[in-house]
TrEMBL record:
Similarity remark: Belongs to the PPR family. PCMP-H subfamily.
Protein name per its UniProtKB record: Pentatricopeptide repeat-containing protein
Source species taxonomy: Eukaryota, Viridiplantae, Streptophyta, Embryophyta, Tracheophyta
Keywords: Repeat
Pfam family, one: PPR
UniProt-listed InterPro entries: E_motif (IPR046848), PPR_At4g14850-like_plant (IPR046960), PPR_rpt (IPR002885), TPR-like_helical_dom_sf (IPR011990)
Gene Ontology biological-process entries: RNA modification
GO molecular function (one): RNA binding
Repeat among keywords: yes
Species name: Kalanchoe fedtschenkoi
PPR repeats: 18-52, 119-153, 220-254
PROSITE patterns: PPR (PS51375)
UniProt xrefs under Gene3D superfamilies: Tetratricopeptide repeat domain
Amino acid sequence: MGDLEGARQLFDEMPNRNLATWNAMLTGLVQFECNEEGLDLLSQMHELGWLPDEFALGSALRACAGLRSAAAGKQVHGYAAKSGLELNVAVGSSLAHMYTKSGSLEEGEKVIKQMPELNVVAWNTLIAGRAQHGYPEGVLDQYSMMKIAGCVPDKITFVSALSSCSELATLGQGRQIHAEVIKTGAGSIDGVLSSLISMYSRCGCLDESVQAFTESASKDPVLWSAMIAAYGYHGKGEEAIELFETLEKEAIEVNDVTFLSLLYACSHSGLKQQGVKFFDAMIEKYHIKPRVEHYTCLVDLLGRSGCLQEAEAKIRFMPVKPDTVIWKTLLSACKLHKNEEMAKRAAKEITQLDPHDSASYVLLSNIHASGRRWEEASTVRRLMKERNIKKEPGISWVEISNRIHQFCTSDKSRQDSKELVLYLKELTYSMKLRGVGQWRWLVGA
């Protein structure tokens, strides 16, 4: 009921406690994100001779995951191994979750693969780990393996798989997963519907996003926010605003995600006045404190509209600490409007926050080059070389027969790389004959 202090007082006053009491208190602390206090309680429990069971260990591992502390997690892991609970499905899943949240995806997967039997929770932990570490192809591979193993996906699985389809824009697989959603009866769950809306939108199928949205009578703000973002992604800012106004009329809860989607829609549709108005309303009318992401959308909106001075002022005087993303947003606007002086200031801020961020160097070099300042462009490139900063390679994906093929610049790891290079040479020769121009860069792709 939200009274952690009362629960703790009752726990401390108890003359006698059993294992269930310890577990209840430990779980409560972790649910309230009092993770360090939760681990202290586990220590007390151990010192008093109580042997933590799978529930206590699961809560302790969630506390370690919340702290992103692999060191503390390894201690709990050692205890689980000594007590013979390491291969327990619940403990194993919590261990894998802890390792992946702490940045050790390999360790997390190792724990899962050692388990004698995988249930849906274990599969979801494996899939979520790959999603958190930015491996959308790996998510879809694990999803396929999960089905082959005969495990039925649940709503958490579908959200992860559909989100990966969104990232990769793999419409074919997205539609297959949608069919699985319908078969399992998960099509009415708001979280799954939101993922479907985003997936279809990012795959270029706005009509199917609208259909998924209209089939639900839910008043969940996440679902409405997803549809507003879908309109924004397709440059339909007016429709996004109209949907937001409907949301207000129906008295549906508005949150920070709703405004983030709305600002994104205004930015991508060139609706500067409306975007600024909604940003102000978010603070003054709805009393929602803007995050750095909201300010980034506002800077993007102002930057696209050519209001660079105003955009820079917003960053410098906003109450939250700016990150590299917001400065790169301004830097991109400087490139668009050819403002070299401001670009230098933005690039300097980025390099102070992250000296190894290649994007700022590349953008600044391109800005100098577009202004025919070849010497300054060369200086930036030389600086990259001196600092051993390499441009992030371009990556593209293509979906053929439900398989995702990834292509990366200068990647020779594919078995068919020789055939691909040969075919690119043929294309280059054909382009030259047709007068398309010099396309030598293709051969190195």
